[in-house]
Amino acid sequence: MDKFLVWYGELTTQRRLTMRGMQFLGVGMLWILLFLVLPGLVLVVVSFATRGSYGNLEWHFTLENYKRLLGFSVFGWTADYIIILWRSVWVAFVTSVIAVVLSYPLCFFICSRPERTRYLWLMLVVIPFWTNMVIRTYAWFLILAPEFPPARIANFLGLLPANTPLYPNAFAVYLGMVTIFLPFVALPLYSSVERLDWSLVEAAQDLYASKIRIFMQAILPQTVPGLSVGIILTFVPAMGMFVVPDLLGGAKYMLVGNLIEQQFGASRDWPFGAAVSMGLMALTMISLYLYRRKNKEMQFV
Amino acid sequence: MDTIMHAGLSVRGIDKSFGLVKALKGVSLDVREGEFFTLLGPSGCGKTTLLRIIAGLELADAGKIVLGGEDITALPATKRQVNTVFQSYALFPHLTIFENVAFGLRSRKFPREQIESRVRKRLEMLGLQNMANRYPHQLSGGQQQRVALARALVNEPKVLLLDEPMSALDAKLRGQVQVELRRLQRKLGQTFILVTHDQSEAMVVSDRIAVMSQGKIIQFGSPKEVYERPGTRFVAEFLGAANLLRGKKKNGGLDTDIGFLALNQSPSWEEGTVAIRPERIRVTKQPASVNAFKARLREAIYRGTDLDLWFDPGPLRVRTAAHRNYAVDKEVWLEFPPEALVILDG
User: Is the peptide bond before A221 cis (omega within 30 degrees of 0)?
Assistant: First the structure.
């Protein structure tokens, strides 16, 4: 006989509660298992397999793919893949920083508008967010074309030969990345800025704080929740991004996303592609861990 | 404009509008050094706006503010030697109590040892020495209020502004804090300006009160002056209860609905109002020689410290000692001593 107990006003037993909990949890667990854990495990297994002569998978266990990722090959050691990995982290970092720096004035501007027009301004941020990424990236082709002012100005300043577009290069990659990820930072940040307690800003002014100090002590701590969401939503996908560097960066500015896409696509080297993916995942985890540790110091206590 | 020589705070002809709403209409006042000054008025009278203008958090449309002989009208809040205790306290949630109190000194780059000693001294003075390493959310409302006070006082401002600092405290604690605040101000001898809508709070703490209504200061005076000699009907009714009697001037007295009232002074108007506080009306068995009226007791309310009586005609409100007994519907004599009748403007 089960012991009866009252749970939020309902007469029930411990066993029935456990059963019900499992029912609710089960669906979610199954989902995660099917679509996250299993494919992940497949990727891990594949990363230890060998590529056959025709791009097929051969099940010989090997560490060769990881050695190759670290730069060891029959021709000796090269840093190529490590540079690509590091460059991806760097691009994701710079993209996040620029997006944050641009988002603050944007959010304060929108919040300072009268309530009636505020949503109109917000729509202007959201619409590109809904537009296909490839289309937005192609739009830069037009803007950076040789006939248009940006390329002409660059030419005039002697930074660019005549009649060449402002791509492919690192600058174009950053430009494309920032435009794509700006809404990911601006929208969560906006929700924090909108709820800002301005009396703290006034208190800081009253206590002789400089403009920088007002921002650091009265504004930044209050916007940390939105900022955290924005940075994670930008940094993680930006590290694996391949559309933008592919179109605007060309072969000269390859990122890890392109490398993975290449292995699973043109090169038909799935085991190496899987190994690079594992490398990317490891980097993501490390970055998130470092970010969390840094963030904890800033978080409201 | 007259020259302002004293060391306190002078406000001259301040105007402020928000859109079409005129919040302040030519407000002028002088606060002496070391004075506890209170701006008292109902919500929306402009008292908080005036305080924010003195703090520099709001800019006046017209007028002048002089602090200790220096014109500070154009100075931003960050440059004024004025500190504020905010209504919500506005403590920095991510900083400890020590860092909150040290905030102003750190902004002005004081040397480390000096910050340490000055903050410790203020924390001790307000009984917060054991809270230094805690965070604001770990403190009670009363403690947070004292932190806000310490954070402002540590900067040794020329004027301390208090924006309804007691409104978040419960009634019992509020009474206690009012007395403590009064004692603190006396001990420090610093100039305090308090904004409140609570007339009893204003009475307890202030040296001088300015009663505000609709963007103007209606009356200045000590708590006793504004309570006992209100100039207008608004002041009479806002500060405690008052019986208002309307009538026409007649033979140096007043012809009212309840009868002829003898006054100590002849009013300047032909038709107007006089006021009398409920506790100044005497209830007698025999008619007094002047201003005696027969009245019937309609209702008696026992309030512990005193007894509130409501009489017909009127209703006239009378307050007497709680130990006395009156029967409802009985007729008694009421006496209105001429010295207790206050002639109001218009």
Answer: no
B346 to B14, B93, B231, B267, B341: CA distances (angstroms): 26, 51, 10, 10, 15
Residue B2 has pLDDT above 70, yes or no: no
Among chain B residues, the shortest Cα distance to A208 is held by: B78
CA distances from residue B93 to A32, A219, B84 in whole angstroms, order as listed: 38, 12, 17
Least confident of A243-252, B164-173, B189-198: A243-252
Distance, in angstroms, between A220 CA and closest chain B CA?
A: 11
| Residue B83 at interface with chain A, using a CB cutoff of 8 Å | yes
| Token pair 């411990």: residue | A14
The Cα A36–Cα A39 span in angstroms is 6
Percent share of chain B, pLDDT over 90: 65
User: Chain B 263-282, CB below 8 Å of chain A: which residues?
Assistant: none
- ipTM of the modeled complex: 0.85
Which of B209, B208, B203, B244 minimizes the C-alpha distance to B344? B244
Return contacts of B66-73, CB within 8 angstroms, 24+ apart: B66/B4, B66/B9, B66/B10, B66/B12, B67/B9, B67/B10, B67/B158, B67/B159, B68/B7, B68/B8, B68/B9, B68/B33, B68/B158, B69/B4, B69/B5, B69/B6, B69/B7
Rounded to the nearest 10°, the torsion over CA A204, A210, A213, A214 is 40
The answer to whether the beta carbons of residues B115 and B191 sit under 8 Å apart is: no
Element (H or E) spanning B139, and its range? Answer: none
- The closest alpha carbon to B264, from B291, B240, B233, belongs to B291
**Cβ separation A202–B95 shorter than 8 A:** no
CA distance A261 to B82: 63
Residue B34 DSSP SS3: coil
> Chain B contacts of A218, Cβ < 8 Å?
92
pLDDT score of B220 more than 50: yes
**B29 neighbors B210 (Cβ within 8 angstroms):** yes
